[in-house]
Amino acid sequence: xxxxxxxxxxxxxxxxxxxxxxxxxxxxxxxxxxxxxxxxxxxxxxxxxxxxxxxxxxxxxxxxxxxxxxxxxxxxxxxxxxxxxxxxxxxxxxxxxxxxxxxxxxxxxxxxxxxxxxxxxxxxxxxxxxxxxxxxxxxxxxxxxxxxxxxxxx
Length: 154
Hints:
Layout lengths: L1 E3 L5 H14 L8 H4 L4 H10 L1 E7 L2 E11 L2 E9 L8 H15 L4 E7 L3 H9 L3 E8 L7 E8 L1
Parallel strand pairs: 4-5
Antiparallel strand pairs: 1-2, 2-3, 3-4, 5-7, 6-7
Helix pairs in contact: 1-3
């Protein structure tokens, strides 16, 4: 079941986000060491400032996706599915639901960065219509890696 988080869901977000950062640290621009220090007010503010969706199975969050409004579009800042639930369509479900929220809010595009060596993520985004737009930058958490921006026009 996918649901949109509200500020009172801050502890759930903290749990799933920290799990994601520990499980796949090279997939994110942030780190577990940084975010484990966030207090309740910070987690509540993050929820209030963006759109955070979680996929819950048996009362456990097994996936998360988030985006923040940026100009006329939205910027995806988090996408993760637990290892035990990968390859079952959960990532596609989260992405499709986020696309619906963005369209309903009047966003004209969704964009994101994906680390260039993350073929699985890149293929997922391509299946949903995202395309590389030629923007590349050094990946901040691993010297020598780059990440590419991808965009979906809505």
